[in-house]
């Protein structure tokens, strides 16, 4: 759909006059994406319990897929023959793939790190060894064909060199968000000097984010490029990090918790009980239009249809939250939105310190 030969065009449309929040349009080869955006995770090219056409109807513009899982099954050869993951899974929106490194670290046993790559040992009885090299990660991600792809940590230049589709896929380098400020600054400087279209940041926990973190990481990025905070998806974290100037988020949480029978609301996670109200009287999703908490309570975690119904609601919740954030930035009332959101969550005004400190660093004071 793109009429230019740039794989990513990012335009800031509105900025909060108080904090660092902004609303932007990100034009990708397969879709125009409104940011700040939350991206749900479709691990193996499927978002569990939802058809791609249902996701499109919900207004989802972009989702994430996992390089390691897709590289293992169906593998790059099938994906190449299929003409890429978009066609293979029947998804017309935008896609983003991770580097594969995170899954390898969590699913395999780390064997050896060399300059060539990282060697992993499979944990199953076959005891086979797998090597993750930057070239291999980029080859799989080129076969998947996502609009945005991730660099394997440490080897940005080898990733850029191995990239075979720079006209249709953008590489985002990953900046390490450790607690060591000097290391972060080195990592950020290393990345901002390269010709890349956006930046990804990893932190171990969103709670580690603070006003300081903003000062040491986000201020170094060029303002005209998107900033993607990986693995963050609790509503409260999204609100705080939008205030700090983050544009993109992903997390398995909203869809995974749905499969465990948990529904998301503005006041937190709802445990379904035997009452005849919808999950959220203000939610316009099809689950809330037609099904009661009592009905859902009787079927959650047991029947696949309940997985669908709760996933639909949780995705609608995340999408609505992001739209409310964007609207309030556009309408110049984002600081009030944040204060109302936090008061609703903590009516006793007993706000966690990390929230107060992070928001104070960008001039938002809570009620
Ligand atoms: C629904 O929205 C209205 C108006 O914003 C609000 O007063 C009310 O508390 C909301 N109800 C629920 C169940 O969230
Ligand atoms: C609710 O169910 C009815 C059928 O009973 C259907 O016609 C309608 O489209 C459903 N509403 C939504 C929002 O899906
Ligand atoms: Zn709903």
TrEMBL record:
Keyword line = Glycosyltransferase, Metal-binding, Transferase, tRNA processing, Zinc
Q: Where is the tRNA-guanine(15) transglycosylase-like domain?
A: 20-151, 152-344
* Position of the signal peptide: none
- For this protein, what is the EC number? 2.4.2.64
The keyword tRNA processing is annotated on this UniProt entry = yes
- List the Pfam families: TGT
Domain of life of the native organism? Eukaryota
Say yes or no: keyword Glycosyltransferase present.
yes
Return the protein name: tRNA-guanosine(34) queuine transglycosylase
């Amino acid at each position: 759909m793109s009429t230019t030969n740039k794989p990513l065009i990012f335009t800031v449309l509105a900025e909060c006059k108080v904090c660092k929040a902004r609303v932007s349009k990100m034009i990708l080869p397969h879709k125009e994406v409104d940011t700040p955006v939350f991206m749900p995770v479709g691990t193996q090219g499927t978002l569990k319990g939802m058809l791609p056409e249902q996701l499109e109807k919900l207004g989802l513009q972009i989702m994430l897929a996992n390089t390691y899982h897709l590289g293992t099954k169906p593998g790059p050869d099938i994906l190449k023959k299929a003409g890429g993951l978009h066609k293979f899974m029947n998804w017309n929106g935008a896609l983003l793939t991770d580097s594969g490194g995170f899954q390898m670290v969590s699913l395999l046993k780390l064997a050896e790190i060399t300059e060539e790559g990282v060697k992993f040992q499979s944990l199953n009885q076959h005891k086979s060894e797998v090597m993750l090299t930057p070239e291999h990660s980029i080859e799989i991600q080129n076969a998947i064909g996502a609009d945005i792809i991730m660099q394997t940590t440490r080897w940005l230049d080898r990733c850029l060199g191995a990239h075979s589709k720079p006209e249709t896929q953008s590489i985002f380098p990953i900046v390490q968000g450790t607690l060591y400020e000097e290391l972060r600054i080195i990592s950020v400087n290393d990345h901002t000097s390269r010709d890349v279209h956006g930046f990804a940041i990893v932190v171990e926990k969103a709670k580690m984010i603070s006003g300081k973190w903003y000062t040491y990481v986000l201020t170094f990025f060029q303002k005209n490029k998107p900033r993607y905070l990986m693995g963050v998806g609790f509503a409260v974290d999204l609100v705080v990090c939008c205030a700090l100037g983050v544009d993109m988020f992903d997390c398995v949480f909203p869809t995974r918790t749905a499969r465990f029978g948990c529904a998301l609301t503005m006041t937190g996670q709802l445990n379904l009980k035997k009452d005849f109200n919808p999950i959220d009287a203000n939610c316009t999703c099809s689950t809330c239009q037609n099904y009661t908490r009592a009905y859902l309570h009787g079927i959650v975690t047991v029947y696949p249809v309940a997985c669908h119904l709760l996933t639909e609601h949780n995705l609608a919740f995340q999408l609505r939250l992001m739209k409310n954030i964007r609207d309030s930035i556009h309408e110049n009332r984002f600081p009030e939105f944040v204060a109302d959101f936090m008061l609703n969550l903590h009516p006793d005004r007993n706000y966690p310190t990390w929230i107060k400190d992070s928001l104070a660093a960008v001039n938002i004071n809570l009620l």
